[in-house]
């Protein structure tokens, strides 16, 4: 489950809740999947509680949720986190924000303070018929826990042994702007992100660690045209620059809708310049199938295949949504 509580992360478990007027109380618990493979694992468990409040009758439809959760790893207390999130919407305007703090033991291996802000964000969006626009900002620190420390290199988690600068160094800050327009038979959407990444890195085992800071920038534009009542054609160029790689990509494809079935297929060539090797070309295929099986049930299957020197892989994601009536 990804939504047992705000800021929780993936959980193989259960949530039990009850609503009293405008207040909702819930408790949850379960096992945490393996951080590398995502397979079920019994080494770590998460548990906690959440309280939420909303007022759908208010003009701004406000909602506020507070979640406290902890975890254990190999029988030892691990994460201790407190998350808060809120939102409000009025007519064409939507506002939202969130923050998460984590408490660390005095003898933690990450050089972290007893209490740190590990993430925060805020955003606003405006929508009207045929147009939308949005702005957002996000601040994140690396995930740090005993569970991750058991399976990942120390420098990935910003440990005290890595460098003294690490305790206040690793972070990611980004701002994002998006906008779009729609007509009767066409649509155009764009998103631009600008941020700064500060992190420790090393090129290979045994080399000294370095603290580097770089500007990240990326952009994505997608256009779609209805060729007929059932067939649509789309294209989506993208480009970006980060600390270790630059890329330019172009996705082109078509989709068809017949009754309750919607299917699409796209080809995505990508020109990648990676710090590990010279410029290479990747070839990707993206297939999507969506079925409205009934008024209560939706099914979807997404398949992604990539071929090239950087990676050769096939991934699939199947989802279903059932609405109780």
Summarize it.
This protein is mostly beta strands.
Question: How large is the count of helical segments?
Answer: 1
Biggest sheet features: 17 strands, antiparallel
Indicate the multimeric state. Answer: single chain
Helix content: under 10%
- Computed CA radius of gyration, to the nearest angstrom: 22 Å
Task: Measure the end-to-end span.
Answer: 22 Å
| Secondary-structure-derived class | mainly beta
Give me the count of strands: 17
Strand-and-helix sequence, N→C?
Answer: EEEEEEEEHEEEEEEEEE
Shape: globular
Q: Strand percentage, roughly? A: over 45%
Residue-averaged pLDDT, rounded?
89
Low-confidence stretches: 160-168
Describe the structure.
This protein has 325 residues and is mainly β. Among the domains are: 91-226; 229-238 and 245-325. The protein is 1% helix and 65% strand. It contains one helix and 17 strands. It has a 17-stranded antiparallel beta sheet, with no helix packed on it. The longest helix has 4 residues, at 146-149. The chain is globular, with a radius of gyration of 22 Å. The protein starts with 11 loop residues before the first strand and ends with a strand.
Key terms:
325 residues, 1 helix, mainly beta
List strands and helices in order, with pairings.
Blueprint: E1 12-20, E2 23-31, E3 44-54, E4 63-73, E5 76-90, E6 93-103, E7 115-128, E8 131-140, H1 146-149, E9 171-182, E10 186-201, E11 210-226, E12 231-241, E13 245-258, E14 261-274, E15 277-292, E16 297-307, E17 313-322
Antiparallel strand pairs: 1-2, 2-3, 3-4, 4-5, 5-6, 6-7, 7-8, 8-9, 9-10, 10-11, 11-12, 12-13, 13-14, 14-15, 15-16, 16-17
